């Protein structure tokens, strides 16, 4: 892998991890379109460390507050979860994130190897994978369009309930499928639950941080135990740094964008990209 490829992959990962367009899909599409070798699962997972850095930098106040509030929330979980006072908000948010993370962790433990084999097949034409990705891109776009049509956009983060966290957490589990998108599925579920768009995005990013951290830690372990030389480690570091910068820009930009606009541009992008991919496969 060249430095240029690491930069491109870092930008793609950083932007698409948080925009509702699927990072895993784009990390399959880019090498397919450009004729590059796949970055590999270790590099793919290591890029998650960059996006984790972006989450930590952007949400550092909330994250520190939740860490500090978590012991008290764990000591009285029922009272914290049913409280609607602002003084218990960060503790309640921490518990809801833990609850919402469980479905994704279970899905990852049980289904990650199957998904990897299905979407990173050995000796099989990648066109089949691209078709599956295109279908997932279009399917989630239609679901997001439906959510926009029926959503009330009246609730904020402080109104989140256990049911909300469970439903949005289940939606996050579906993001194992390339083309679905972690942020896309969780923002869509948040909209169905009546959240304002920007608050749906904020909870999506916070909810995704534990799983992003787990993926990044696994990637880092794979990298450190794979015997890479200094030059290769440097390329991985460049990709990580690039994904961190791009990820921060994506978080900052999307939250501000959703404060004044809908997700229509992403719905259109997903449908157009899916149709273009199907057309390219058809003419190859």
Describe the structure.
The chain has one domain (3-283). Helix 1 (3-18) packs antiparallel against helix 2, helix 2 packs antiparallel against helix 7 and helix 7 (126-150) packs parallel to helix 9. The two termini are 26 Å apart. It is globular. The model has no long low-confidence stretch (mean pLDDT 89). Helices cover 79% and strands 0% of the residues. It is mainly alpha-helical and 284 residues long. The longest helix has 31 residues, at 89-119. It contains 12 helices and no strands.
> Which percent range describes the beta-strand content?
under 5%
Q: Which class best fits the helix and strand makeup?
A: mainly alpha
Question: What is the average of the pLDDT values?
Answer: 89
Major sheet, described briefly? Answer: none
Integer-rounded radius of gyration: 19 Å
What's the domain count?
1
Distance between the termini: 26 Å
What oligomerization state is this entry in?
Answer: single chain
Helix content: over 70%
Identify the overall geometry. globular
Order of helices and strands: HHHHHHHHHHHH
The total count of strands amounts to 0
Stretches where pLDDT is under 50 for at least 5 consecutive residues are none
Q: What is the helix tally? A: 12
């Amino acid at each position: 892998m060249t430095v240029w490829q690491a930069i491109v992959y870092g930008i793609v990962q950083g932007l698409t991890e948080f925009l509702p367009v699927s990072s895993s899909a784009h990390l399959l599409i880019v090498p397919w379109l450009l004729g590059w070798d796949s970055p590999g699962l270790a590099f793919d997972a290591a890029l998650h460390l960059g996006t984790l850095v972006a989450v930590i930098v952007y949400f550092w106040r909330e994250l520190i507050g939740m860490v500090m509030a978590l012991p008290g929330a764990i000591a009285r979980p029922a009272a914290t979860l049913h409280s609607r006072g602002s003084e218990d908000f960060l503790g309640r948010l921490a518990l809801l994130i833990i609850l919402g993370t469980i479905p994704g962790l279970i899905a990852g433990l049980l289904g990650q190897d199957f998904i990897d084999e299905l979407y990173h097949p050995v000796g099989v034409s990648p066109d089949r994978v691209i078709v599956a990705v295109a279908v997932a891109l279009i399917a989630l776009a239609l679901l997001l369009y439906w959510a926009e049509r029926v959503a009330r956009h009246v609730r904020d983060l402080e109104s989140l309930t256990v049911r909300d966290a469970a439903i949005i957490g289940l939606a996050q589990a579906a993001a194992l499928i390339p083309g679905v998108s972690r942020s896309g599925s969780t923002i869509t579920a948040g909209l169905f639950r009546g959240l304002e768009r920007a608050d749906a995005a904020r909870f999506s990013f916070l909810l995704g941080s534990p799983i992003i951290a787990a993926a990044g830690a696994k990637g880092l372990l794979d990298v450190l135990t794979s015997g890479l030389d200094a030059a290769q480690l440097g390329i991985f570091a460049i990709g990580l740094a690039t994904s961190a910068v791009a990820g921060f820009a994506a978080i900052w930009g999307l939250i501000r964008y959703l404060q004044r606009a809908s997700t229509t541009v992403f719905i259109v992008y997903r449908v157009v990209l899916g149709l273009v991919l199907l057309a390219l496969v058809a003419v190859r």
